[in-house]
Amino acid sequence: MAKPNYGFDKRQRELKKSKQQEEKRLKKLARGSSGESGDGSDEQQPPSSDTPEQTS
């Protein structure tokens, strides 16, 4: 009887996992570029430091 090739099995699991992660990343990227609102963290910008706020 042949010995199991655990290294091959591990490599196949890693490839499957990385493929799923890449698909998820592409789905998120497509969702973000289509104009759907996500968490909005990329679109928000901090207030400009050029104009000081007046506290009168």
Q: Could you please describe the fold and organization of this structure?
A:
This protein has 56 residues and is mostly helical. It has one helix and no strands. The chain has one helix spanning 6-33. The longest helix is centred in the middle third of the chain and has 28 residues, at 6-33. It is elongated and about 80 Å long. The termini are far apart. The mean pLDDT is 81.
Helices and strands, in order, run as H
Instruction: Extract low-pLDDT stretches.
Output: none
Give a count of the beta strands, DSSP E runs of length 2 or more.
0
Overall pLDDT: 81
Q: Sketch the major β-sheet.
A: none
Number of helices: 1
Helix content: 40-55%
Helix/sheet category: mainly alpha
Task: Please describe the topology of this protein.
Blueprint: H1 6-33
Relevant terms:
mainly alpha, 56 residues, single chain
